[in-house]
Amino acid sequence: MTKKETFTYIAASLAFLVPFPGRFVYGVVLVLELFFLMLIGTCVSSAAEKIRLGEIKNILSLIAITSFTILYKHIFIITQTEIAMTLGFLFYIPTASSFIIGYIFNNQDAALTDRLKKNIIDTARFVLFALFFFLIRDIFGYGTFTFFGKNHIIFEKVLFDPDKISVLSYIASMPGAMCLSCFMLFLDSSISQKMEILRRAEKDGE
Length: 206
Known about the structure:
The chain is mostly helical. 69% of the residues lie in helices and 4% in strands. The chain has 7 helices and 2 strands; from the N terminus they run H-H-H-H-H-H-E-E-H. It has a two-stranded antiparallel ribbon. A hairpin with a 7-residue loop joins strand 1 (144-147) and strand 2 (155-158). Helix 2 packs antiparallel against helix 3 (56-79) and helix 3 crosses helix 4. The longest helix is centred in the C-terminal third of the chain and has 32 residues, at 174-205. It is flat. The two termini are 24 Å apart.
């Protein structure tokens, strides 16, 4: 992980990973929203740039991703009411985050296919990080595994007796989530640095 990527992950973690409830199902809702926002924002931004709309292209991109967020939330109001009621305004945090805005307004002169490829790959990497983050909080913080359920209620599978994981329940809290995200970022950064050193050593040895 590069220094720029580390700062991006820190900003994204503070913006929406930590404030979101620490259940896996909410993490899935978040990452799906991120993927669609990145896809729509990148396409609208590139289209506006191609037809030379000037500064209005940024406004159009923001209108597009905000409109999608409203639609996305209403889909959950209709299909998964408990999730929609729990998240509430949190649906709108990714829309205004530096993670989304920074990517969709970056490299606007590049071809759409190149921008989509880069943005989707970068988003996919963060999605894996986020899903692992929420999975750890769900399992070890609450002793459960959650997913989309029926009749507007989330599915919850109890994995551990809550009394047996009382020490680990700290990571279910917001301070615990911050500590967990810092640890995961440190671990990811350390592994990436070591892999980069190994790659350079192999190059020098050739």
